[in-house]
C-alpha cells in the first residue's frame, strides 16, 4: 500500500481495537486506483463522533454535525467521518441533520458517484457494491442510484459531475448526463460558496475546455452567478483555454474579456470570491489591459506590476488573441532584473530633497516631479543618484 494509506494504518487499528469498523473512502481511494497523487486520506467509520473523540487524545470538531472529526495522529491530520445516511433532503440541498448508522454499505450508497463510493480496508481489499472500479476503468461518471433522485437530493452533485469531467477527463454516463440537462435549475437552491468550490476545481482541471462547453451544452451556466447570459462567451473562453497552462484564477479574466466587462468586480463579488482574490485578479486584469493598449511590455509596466503578474497577463493576452509567440517569461524576468530600482522607495531623492533644491514648499508638484524622476530612472535616462538627478532636473 502506498505511503499516505500506510501511515494511517495504525489509526485504523486503534479504531478497530475499540470495537468499530474503519475504512479508507472517497477521493483518496479513487485517486489511488487511478494512480494519481493523493492529498488527504479520508476515513469512514462505524464509530460515532463522541466515540472517536474518546479513542484519540487530539481531535478537532470540524464538522461534527455531519459526523466528521479531525484526528491529529502521528504528525498528520485525518478526517474521520461516521457512516451516515442523509435522511430527508430539504430544498434540494444537503440535509441539516444526518443519521449515523453502523453499515458501510449504506454510507457508500449516500455518496455521489460510483467512483467515489469505493471503500478500502487497511489490507487493501476493495469494497465496491456499486461497481465503481468498472466505471473507473471505463472512465465514466455515474451517480450511485437514480440520477434524477440524487440530483434532486443535492443539486451540487451536478456541478461536481462537471468538475470531475474537468479533472479526470471522464465522460458522463448517459442517464447521469440527461438528468443534469433536465435539472440544472435546481442549482439555484445551492449556496454560492459550495458552487464556487467546485467551479474553482473545474477551472483548474486539465480538461476544463470540455467542462466549460458542457456547462453550456447541459444548460447549467444559466443557473450560475452572473453567467446566465453568457453562453457564447463561455464557449469562447473554452476555446481560449484549450492547450494553455493558464491558472484557473486567470480564466475569470477571460470571462471578463469575452463578456466585455470593464469591471470584473460585480461578477467576482457575486461568486463571493475573497477580497484578496478579487484584488489579485483585478491587478492581473489591469496589467492585461495595459499590455493590450501599448502592444508591448515597457519597463514602466514591468516595474509597476512586477514580472509574475506581467507573465500571467501575457499568457492571457496570447490566449485571447490567438498569439503563439508570447513574450517569454525569462525575458520579462530579465528586464525586471535589469531595472535600476524595483520600488519607488529606492529612488535616490525624496520630496525633502526637491523642496530644498527648489526652495519651495510642499504640494502636488512634488508627487508629479517624483513620478517624472521615477520614469526617467526606470528608462535609464538618468542614473539613480542625487547629483545626476539634480543635474538632469536642472538641464
Ligand atoms: P477531491 O479529490 O477534490 O477532494 P473528493 O471526491 O474527495 O474529491 P470531497 O468533496 O472531498 O471530494 O468529498 C469526499 C467524498 O464525499 C466524495 O468522494 C464522495 O464520496 C462524498 N461526497 C462529497 N460531496 C458529496 C455530495 N454532494 N453528495 C454525495 N456525496 C458526496
Ligand atoms: Mg476529498
From TrEMBL:
| CCA-adding enzyme C-terminal domain location | 249-392
Gene3D superfamilies associated with the record: 1.10.110.30, 1.10.246.80, 1.20.58.560, Beta Polymerase, domain 2 (3.30.460.10)
Required cofactor names: Mg(2+)
Q: Which UniProt keywords apply?
A: ATP-binding, Magnesium, Metal-binding, Nucleotide-binding, Nucleotidyltransferase, RNA repair, RNA-binding, Transferase, tRNA processing
Query: Where along this sequence does the record place binding of CTP?
Result: 27, 30, 111, 154, 157, 160, 163
What CDD domains does this protein's entry cite?
A: NT_ClassII-CCAase (cd05398)
Query: Which residues are recorded as binding ATP?
Result: 27, 30, 111, 154, 157, 160, 163
On whether NADP is a keyword of this UniProt record, the answer is no
Instruction: Return one GO MF term.
Output: tRNA binding
The processes (GO biological process) annotated in the record are: RNA repair; tRNA 3'-terminal CCA addition
Domain Poly A polymerase head as annotated: residue spans: 22-142
Catalyses: a tRNA precursor + 2 CTP + ATP = a tRNA with a 3' CCA end + 3 diphosphate; a tRNA with a 3' CCA end + 2 CTP + ATP = a tRNA with a 3' CCACCA end + 3 diphosphate
Taxonomy, superkingdom:
Bacteria
Stated EC number for the protein is: 2.7.7.72
Quote the record's binding site residues for Mg(2+).
40, 42
Start and end residues of each tRNA nucleotidyltransferase/poly(A) polymerase RNA and SrmB- binding domain: 170-228
Q: Indicate yes or no for the key word Transmembrane.
A: no
Q: How does it assemble?
A: Homodimer.
Q: What else is known?
A: A single active site specifically recognizes both ATP and CTP and is responsible for their addition.
PANTHER family for the chain = CCA TRNA NUCLEOTIDYLTRANSFERASE 1, MITOCHONDRIAL
The entry's function note states: Catalyzes the addition and repair of the essential 3'-terminal CCA sequence in tRNAs without using a nucleic acid template. Adds these three nucleotides in the order of C, C, and A to the tRNA nucleotide-73, using CTP and ATP as substrates and producing inorganic pyrophosphate. tRNA 3'-terminal CCA addition is required both for tRNA processing and repair. Also involved in tRNA surveillance by mediating tandem CCA addition to generate a CCACCA at the 3' terminus of unstable tRNAs. While stable tRNAs receive only 3'-terminal CCA, unstable tRNAs are marked with CCACCA and rapidly degraded.
**Family indicated by similarity:** Belongs to the tRNA nucleotidyltransferase/poly(A) polymerase family. Bacterial CCA-adding enzyme type 3 subfamily.
Descriptive protein name: CCA-adding enzyme
Kindly list the organism's lineage.
Bacteria, Bacillati, Bacillota, Bacilli, Bacillales
Amino acid at each position: 500500500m502506498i505511503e499516505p494509506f500506510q501511515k494511517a494504518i495504525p489509526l485504523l487499528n486503534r479504531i478497530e481495537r475499540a470495537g468499530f469498523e474503519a475504512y479508507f473512502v472517497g477521493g483518496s481511494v479513487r485517486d489511488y486506483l487511478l494512480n494519481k497523487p493523493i492529498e488527504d486520506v479520508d476515513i469512514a467509520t462505524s464509530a460515532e463522533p463522541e466515540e472517536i473523540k474518546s479513542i484519540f487524545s487530539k481531535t478537532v470538531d470540524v464538522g461534527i454535525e455531519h459526523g466528521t472529526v479531525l484526528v491529529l495522529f502521528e504528525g498528520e491530520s485525518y478526517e474521520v467521518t461516521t457512516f451516515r445516511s442523509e435522511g430527508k433532503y430539504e430544498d434540494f440541498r444537503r440535509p441539516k441533520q444526518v443519521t449515523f448508522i453502523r453499515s458501510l454499505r449504506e454510507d457508500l450508497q449516500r455518496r455521489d458517484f460510483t467512483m467515489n463510493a469505493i471503500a478500502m480496508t487497511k489490507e487493501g481489499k476493495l469494497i465496491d457494491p456499486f461497481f465503481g472500479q468498472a466505471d473507473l476503468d471505463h472512465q465514466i461518471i455515474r451517480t450511485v442510484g437514480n440520477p434524477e433522485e440524487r440530483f434532486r437530493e443535492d443539486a451540487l452533485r451536478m456541478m461536481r459531475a462537471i468538475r470531475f469531467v474537468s479533472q479526470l477527463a471522464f465522460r458522463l454516463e448517459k442517464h447521469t448526463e440527461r438528468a443534469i440537462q433536465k435539472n440544472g435549475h435546481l442549482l439555484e437552491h445551492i449556496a454560492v460558496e459550495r458552487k464556487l468550490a467546485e467551479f474553482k476545481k473545474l477551472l483548474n482541471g486539465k480538461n476544463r475546455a470540455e467542462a466549460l462547453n458542457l456547462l453550456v451544452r447541459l444548460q447549467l451556466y444559466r443557473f450560475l452567478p452572473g453567467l446566465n447570459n453568457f453562453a457564447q462567451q463561455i464557449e469562447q473562453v473554452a476555446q481560449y483555454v484549450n492547450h494553455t497552462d493558464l491558472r484557473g484564477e486567470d480564466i475569470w479574466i477571460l470571462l471578463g474579456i469575452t463578456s466585455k466587462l470593464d469591471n470584473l468586480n460585480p461578477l467576482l463579488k457575486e461568486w463571493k470570491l475573497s477580497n484578496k482574490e478579487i484584488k489579485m485578479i483585478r491587478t492581473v486584469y489591469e496589467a492585461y489591459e495595459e499590455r493590450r493598449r501599448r502592444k508591448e511590455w515597457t519597463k514602466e509596466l514591468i516595474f509597476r506590476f512586477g514580472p509574475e503578474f506581467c507573465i500571467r497577463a501575457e499568457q492571457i493576452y496570447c490566449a485571447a488573441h490567438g498569439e503563439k509567440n508570447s513574450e517569454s517569461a525569462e525575458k520579462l524576468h530579465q528586464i525586471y532584473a535589469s531595472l535600476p530600482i524595483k520600488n519607488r522607495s529606492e529612488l535616490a531623492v525624496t520630496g525633502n530633497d526637491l523642496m530644498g533644491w527648489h526652495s519651495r514648499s510642499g504640494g502636488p508638484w512634488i508627487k508629479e516631479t517624483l513620478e517624472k524622476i521615477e520614469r526617467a530612472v526606470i528608462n535609464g535616462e538618468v542614473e539613480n543618484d542625487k547629483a545626476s538627478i539634480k543635474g538632469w532636473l536642472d538641464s
